[in-house]
Amino acid sequence: MGIIGDFKKFALRGNLIDMAVGFTVGAAFTSVAKSLVSDIIMPPLGFLMGKSDFSDLFIILNSTEPDKTYTTLAQAQEAGLTTINYGLFINNIIAFLLVAFAMFMIIRVINQLDKRLEDTFGGDKPQPGDPENKKCPYCLSTIPYRATRCAHCTAELPAAEKQPGTAS
Q1: Using CA atoms, how far apart are residues 72 and 57, in angstroms rounded to an integer?
Q2: In tens digits, what is the pLDDT along the chain, a chain of 168 residues?
Q3: CA-to-CA distance for 145 and 134, rounded, in angstroms?
Q4: Are 130 and 163 in contact (CB under 8 A)?
Q5: Bridge partner list, 83
Q6: What is the distance between the alpha carbons of residues 63 and 6, in angstroms, rounded to a whole number?
Q7: Listed residue (56, 58, 36) closest to 46, CA to CA
């Protein structure tokens, strides 16, 4: 197989496509979370702290005119000053915490729904007498016995054989 064939096999592998979808959804989610932080959460927090916006909190490192004050970060940067933008850092920390908390809540809800569905419809639970693990015949990684695809090399595997003397 040539380089094009190898690339096609790599690009169309399930894990890569799933990862691309995850990044795309993550980027969209991040823009919503940043908007939530900068447009909804930060204005009231800034108001309570006496500042209208954390993004204008900064420290000037190389002031050529010590008596001159700059009220916004844009003014200080326009004047060519070097600044430590700790207000933007605070905004980004809050955005990160919100995104992490939202993802935690989404995953928690999905796990609860998955557990309810499994309890209701009976998941692919191990049968009595089934071993816990098996080796992938392609990459020799240890995987769950009832797995139909290897988590390591993504190879499709034959269905788990029934053990003699077990119920179906």
Answers
A1: 8
A2: 688 888 877 777 767 777 888 888 888 888 887 787 778 877 787 788 776 567 888 999 987 787 888 888 899 989 889 999 998 898 888 878 877 887 788 889 888 988 888 777 765 565 666 777 888 888 888 888 878 888 888 888 877 655 454 444
A3: 5
A4: yes
A5: 60
A6: 57
A7: 56
What is the three-state SS of 43-105? HHHHHHCCCCCHHHCCEECCCCCCCCCCCCHHHHHHCCCCEECHHHHHHHHHHHHHHHHHHHH
Whole-Å CA distances, 103 to 25, 38, 57, 60, 66? 12, 19, 29, 36, 45
Q: Counting beta carbons within 10 angstroms of the beta carbon of residue 33, is it exposed (0 to 12), middle (13 to 18) or buried (19 or more)?
A: buried
Smallest CA-to-CA distance from 76 within 120, 86, 121 is with 86
Contact 159/148 with Cβ under 8 angstroms?
yes
